[in-house]
Design brief:
Chain lengths: ~270, ~270
């Protein structure tokens, strides 16, 4: 057996990547999944590219000690700032969240006005407009950093009236613009869909990377003939801090609870 | 000259400690001040005690390479969870934000109903109710973790109508209780005073550790005969990430801007 046949690993700065985990679990029901959340240093979205890269390198170096088939970087901030370096450094297939989204947009010719939402670091990277406009130069793109969305989701307040006011505040510079599609450029943001639809209108359509990443992972493993047929796959969770908080937030992202004993706290120094 | 005669150091997880810096600057106008913000790992308020202690140890070990008269831990989360260990480990006078506040409350016999606000970690430590009730057992105390206050302040939305709704949401379990005094148990919270007064009533009184810590520092240096008489003290800022973000937030906390060249990015590994 190859030393990398065992797990599909999913890396995120915290709990947000669980929206990706959920889709991967459904699309690849026979794979062992290993989730890694850097709860000791979350959130990454307000940090500099240099620090984002360093943190991702440290986490993935740790993960590489496990037996991995492939790695999903389930974080837009890391995918925006560090994916190329990670692919160069680590000798395994790595899938980010940006590329599948950009490829999806190439096929969606009906989109004419796109709002991209993300962390401050993701929006500052300008990666989405740059890659999307290469292929769809006619598209009208608006980008907006919305740093309060993550803490609002984590406080369980995504559907609170205060959140609606905050969305309106963020959108104020664009209030005269009609948006057709919204790119959810952070793995927390699928939990903001209802609140966003209240402000942007029910006809707005959302683009979520999670199912696209799951499909891409399926295709990758199929092409490498690495798909598992195991009946009862294992799901494991590694965190660098705060197992309890991770568990209590997880149910919001997964729609089901995680047992505390399935979450292991690890030290990156070891 | 003793190797510790030069700076009064002020340590915080991020920018919040600048509310303390501001008071120290006013009360000790002749001291060189050295501020340290762990911008690479902020916020500490949602982390476990073990991680909070480790981060504080690493930052202060770094600071100890400079010439320090004393150290102010300008962070309630660290003061609540790590102060005793820090005092044991490091051979210099250390002043936290909790003790001066508890001492102040001993003298304020008119207080009968006290609301304590803080990060999740500070409130979970229960340090304020425990220490306050030892001396004022008759006091009626209410404690509330308000984790959204920090990101709201940092987004410049402390006085936004959404913040008022969020305060009301946090206070819902206590809405029938009349509060006389509010203990601002996080160095960001002085910037929430106006919003809190809107919800709690204009007659509510705020207890802010910053001026108390400045007074205590003055007394300490005076008692050690270490007060400086320098005409033009120096103000330096060390951060572990994101000098630009630190500078742009600083003006909100200090009421005046900091020049980017006065902020040095440091690596804790070195």
């Amino acid at each position: 057996m190859s030393p990398r046949e065992d797990f599909v690993a999913i890396f995120d700065s915290g709990v947000g990547g669980l929206t990706v985990f959920k889709e991967v679990m459904q699309k690849l029901p026979h794979e062992n999944l290993l989730y890694f959340g850097d709860m000791a240093r979350v959130p990454y979205g307000g940090r500099t590219p240099k620090t984002i890269l360093r943190y991702a390198m440290e986490c993935i170096s740790f993960l590489m000690k496990r037996r991995l088939k492939c790695l999903i970087v389930a974080c837009h901030t890391v995918s925006a700032h560090a994916l190329e370096e990670l692919k160069e450094k680590f000798d395994l297939p790595i899938i980010g969240v940006v590329e599948p989204m950009v490829q999806e947009l190439e096929t969606k010719k009906e989109i004419d006005r796109l709002l991209i939402l993300g962390t401050r670091a993701t929006i500052a990277s300008n990666i989405y407009p740059r890659l999307i406009l290469e292929k769809n130069p006619e598209l009208k793109i608006f980008s907006l950093a919305t740093p309060l969305f993550v803490p609002l989701v984590e406080e369980g307040m995504a559907d609170h009236p205060a959140t609606e006011l905050i969305i309106k505040e963020y959108l104020r510079p664009l209030e005269k613009e009609k948006m057709g599609h919204v790119l959810l450029g952070c793995t927390h943001y699928p939990l903001m869909k209802e609140a966003l639809a209240k402000v942007l209108g029910k006809e707005v359509k959302f683009l979520d990377a999670a199912p696209l990443v799951a499909t891409k992972t399926y295709q990758l493993l199929a092409s490498l003939n690495l798909l598992s047929k195991k009946k009862q796959p294992s799901y494991s969770f590694l965190v660098t801090d705060h197992r309890e908080k991770f568990c209590s937030l997880a149910s919001r992202f997964l729609g089901k609870s995680i047992a505390l004993e399935d979450v292991e706290e690890v030290s990156l120094d070891s």
